[in-house]
Amino acid sequence: MYKLARCVWEITLACCFSCKYCGSGGGKARQGELTTEECLRTADELAALGCRRVSLIGGEVFMRRDWQTIVRRLSGRGVRVNLITNGFLMTDRLLEEIRESGTESVSVSVDGPREVHDKYRQAGSFSRALEALKALCGAGIPTSVISTLNAENVNCLAALYETLRSFPVYAWQLQACSPMGNAAKEGVPYRFDFGRVIDFVEKHRQEAPFALGIADNIGYFTPEEGNLRGVQNGKAVFRGCSAGISAVGIDSVGNVRGCESMYDPRFNEGNLRERSLKSIWEDPEAFAYNRKFRPDLLTGACATCEMGPYCAGGCRSYNYFTHGKLYESPACARTAAVPRP
Predict the structure, then answer these.
(1) What is the pLDDT of residues 278-316, one digit of tens each?
(2) What is the pLDDT of residue 51?
(3) Which residues of 20-53 are buried (b: 16+ CB within 10 A; e: fewer)?
(4) Which DSSP letter does residue 141 get?
């Protein structure tokens, strides 16, 4: 039996932006998004399955009027809630609502210095994101930063680090842009050498005033592996894609998939208007791409890599959207074509 630990839940696709690399193509709410009653039922189902942590995303979470009601239901059932936001809508009233809702933490997206961040998001968005960071930290709300990297802003990590170190955030996570949604439509140059990011994290992680780490779609198993994922004990080893193993994704109309970054209908395992979350999660045929993984499914360099059976070929979503092969990482730092010093 697989135990559900984490969920990423897109509660609306409505957004005040339409970012060039938004994987879900956010902007307008979908027709038929889950009602408040349906969301509360989903919150109860997540808690009943033992889910310990839920990250609410959009679109923009705060574009949904009942976001606070959803958070309260989750936090009231003992589920820790993280909100992921672009920070553009932050106000004093919103800060108070975040505190009152029982939200555990908030993550703000910051993707580079002003000119780069605003280029991919919206003019003036960089300043508003930093204002949100200042306000959230000043209000005593645990706050982190998430940066989505592409071939352009990966060159700006040092400059962004100097900006962020002046804020009392508790963590900074670096993740790779994947060519899905708007990123595919806009032709965002998403390919870069993962080794450069690993070198950056290794150089700064001990001196950084916050936990500095990489997401599951960057790696894998270079000599620095245990120190790269934002945990200070040196033992945070990537153990393979967790989609459908310990994690689940839910979109705003109730589709359930192993990971909310697996944004393709082929990965939908069911819909909450037709089946309960429990029945979907416990279906022996669901999430087969991970639950029925075998090392002999690995292809390319992953098939001959000694660590292949452990990382299982890396991030399923990144693999699928970059070259369509689920069990072969196209940008693994361990087998990168570009030599690292």
Answers:
(1) 999 999 999 999 999 999 999 999 999 999 999 999 999
(2) 98
(3) bbbbbbbbebbeebbeeeebbbbbebbbebebeb
(4) -
Strands 247-250 and 143-149: unpaired
Residue 164 CB coordination number (10 Å):
19
pTM for this model (two decimals): 0.95
String of DSSP letters for 307-321: THHHHTTS-HHHHHH
CA distance 238 to 318: 15
Contact present, 82 and 53 (Cβ < 8 Å):
yes
What pairs with residue 208 in β-bridges? none
- Prior bond of 59 cis (ω within 30°): yes
Q: Reduce the secondary structure of 109-125 to three states and give it as a string.
A: ECCCCHHHHHHHCCCCH
Q: Which residues contact 308 (CB under 8 A, 6 or more apart)?
A: 295, 298, 302
The dihedral through the CA atoms of 56, 168, 202, 161 has a sign that is positive
Dist. CA 277–CA 83, nearest whole Å: 21
Q: Which pair of tokens denotes residue 3?
A: 């135990």
With beta carbons less than 8 A apart as the criterion, state whether 27 and 15 touch: yes
Q: Are 266 and 24 in contact (CB under 8 A)?
A: no
Q: Contact, 302 vs 314, CB < 8 A?
A: yes
